[in-house]
Amino acid sequence: MLTLTAPDPIEHRGPAARRALAVANANWFRAMARRALRDGGPQAALRAANARAAARIVLRQAKRDALVSRIATDALNAAAHGP
Fold first, then answer.
1. Residue 1 belongs to a domain
2. Where in the sequence is the domain holding 47, given as residue range(s)?
3. Is the distance from CB of 30 to CB of 55 less than 8 angstroms?
4. In this structure, is residue 4 part of a structural domain?
5. Does a structural domain hold residue 52?
6. String of b and e for 29-62 (b: at least 16 CB within 10 Å)?
7. Which end of the chain is more exposed for a tag (fewer CB within 10 A), N or C?
């Protein structure tokens, strides 16, 4: 039986930590896709496709979060320094 263990939590200290967490999550989902195809079982191709889609979603959300964070930071800096 397959046993998954959660890694130690990554402290959210900034963009680098968020990026590392997103990449780690995407790699985990990709590993699950490879494992589903290797082990076979019922609907292995569907489970692998779902895992790959989840990896893409994680990366897309991380990019969106980085963009929003950058926009918010720029807006706060502009407000702090005046017009």
1. no
2. 15-81
3. yes
4. no
5. yes
6. bbebbeebeeeeeeeeeebbeebbebbeebbeeb
7. N
Number of domains making up the chain: 1
Does 63 reside within a domain?
yes
> Residue range 52-66: average pLDDT?
94
Structure tokens, 4? 């998954």
Average pLDDT over residues 48-64: 95
pLDDT per residue over 63-81, tens digit each? 999 899 889 889 988 888 8
Contact, 19 vs 66, CB < 8 A? yes
Among the listed residues 28, 19, 31, the one whose alpha carbon sits nearest the alpha carbon of residue 69: 19
Q: Which two tokens stand for residue 7?
A: 């890694």
Rounded Cα distance, 2 and 52, in Å: 19
